[in-house]
Amino acid sequence: MKNMADDITGLPGKEREAKTENGFSEERAPIIEVGREPEVAPETGVEKLEKEQHVLPAPVLDDQTGEVLVSPPAPVAPEIILPLTTEEYQMGLEAKIEDSLRWLAEWSKRLIKLLGGKVGFVEKHTG
To answer: Are 72 and 80 in contact (CB under 8 A)?
Structure first.
């Protein structure tokens, strides 16, 4: 019959206890590898297709009637309205670097450079 300690460590009693120079015994425990990432199954072709976005090159037509069943989505170019008026924008660019208005103005300046005419300022703050 096995000892309860043998079940925990997996080692027989004599190997579990080793005598040291002082005559004291120390208990040995098995080394367990920690921090190893679990194995991940490779993706199948179906999973890759589900993750990718596909755009139809042409509308899908019904073979018999010629009716359009599915059409590709029309691209949408949204206009971005910044939460600043033009006066606040100019004040922000002249503000100290520690002010949050300066950082908002700098970010707005970056958006204007990147997106050009798609960016606009708010007319007047409400509230």
So the answer is: no
Average of per-residue pLDDT across 98-116: 93
Residue 103 CA to residue 70 CA, distance in Å, equals 45
Q: How confident is the model at residue 97, as a pLDDT? A: 92
Give pLDDT tens digits for 83-93: 999 999 999 99
- Domains held by the chain: number: 1
Q: What is the DSSP string of 5-55?
A: HHHHHSS-HHHHEEE-TTS-EEE-------SPPPP-PPPPHHHHHHHS---
Question: Is residue 19 a part of any domain in this protein?
Answer: no
Range of the domain at 110: 80-121
Q: How many helices (H) and strands (E) does the chain have?
A: 5, 6
Bridge partners of 19, per DSSP, are 25
pLDDT single digits (tens) 35-75: 767 777 766 666 666 666 667 778 888 888 889 888 877 77
Asked if 102 contacts 95 with a C-beta cutoff of 8 angstroms, the reply is yes
5, two tokens: 């300690």
